[in-house]
Design brief:
The structure is a homodimer of 143-residue chains. Chain A is α+β, with helices and mostly antiparallel strands. Chain A is built from 3 helices and 5 strands; from the N terminus they run αβββαββα.
């Protein structure tokens, strides 16, 4: 079986494909929120990945964290693989601010929600794509 | 500055020291819930760790996931580095069941809570220590 996005993930816009993960922009303007989906079929938990893919995933989490940090200057990063509602393995990387609606609680069960406008989403996708392209090149140079 | 546990983490019982992390049993009997704390000073986010420590952390997340999976047969694993309330880097590894109080939501902001009895905690610490010692040996043999 080939890799296919779960319907709840397929609704999100694709930012870029990294070596392992498809990187999605979660449609929630209250937080800078990116989702990494390893492009492997039938994965539900981090430990379902091979050791090599686990290492690649960690590098892509690190890359994504740096990008969110540099672009949005959050107070903290929340990184999580949950999968209770969407069983396909996906990793949330979320920048948190002390004045965001859910702080200091987690974002997943928070009632407030505000999708991006089309213009906001286009702007953000552009910004993130540029950052991923730039940072991926830097990472290649430094390793 | 040397590694020291944040007061909210220091309240939890120590299961074992792995090469990178101190492994804690979170005192919440509603879920099998283990916390990995990298034994490095001044760490708040995964990306604060060196690449080598990130790789070690991933191996210890994988090891912990397998132990929870084998001992408690959960439906899903939740793995998360949050740090909104406790800024010291720590990673939650939680076994989730379809009949646990918070399912399918996350556990962090759920109102139900039930600490272990002393006897339960002692039993569980014993079980987990034996499993970590056994699995660590297996992992060494297989790498």
């Amino acid at each position: 079986m080939n890799f296919e996005l779960h319907p709840s993930l397929a609704k999100q816009a694709i930012i870029i494909n990294l070596p392992l993960c498809q990187v999605l922009l979660h449609d929630e303007s209250l937080y800078p929120w990116v989702i990494l989906v390893p492009r492997k079929a039938n994965m539900s938990k981090i430990m379902d990945l091979s050791k090599q893919d686990q290492w690649q995933l960690m590098q892509e989490i690190d890359l994504t964290g740096h990008i969110i940090w540099d672009l949005f200057h959050p107070k903290q990063l929340n990184v999580a693989a949950l999968g209770n509602k969407t069983p396909q393995l996906h990793i949330h990387v979320i920048g948190r601010q002390e004045n965001d609606p859910a702080w200091p609680n987690t974002v997943w069960d928070h009632p407030n929600t505000l999708p991006y406008t089309i213009a906001q989403k286009e702007h953000l996708l552009n910004l993130l794509q540029t950052a991923f392209n730039q940072k991926s090149i830097e990472q290649d140079i430094n390793t």
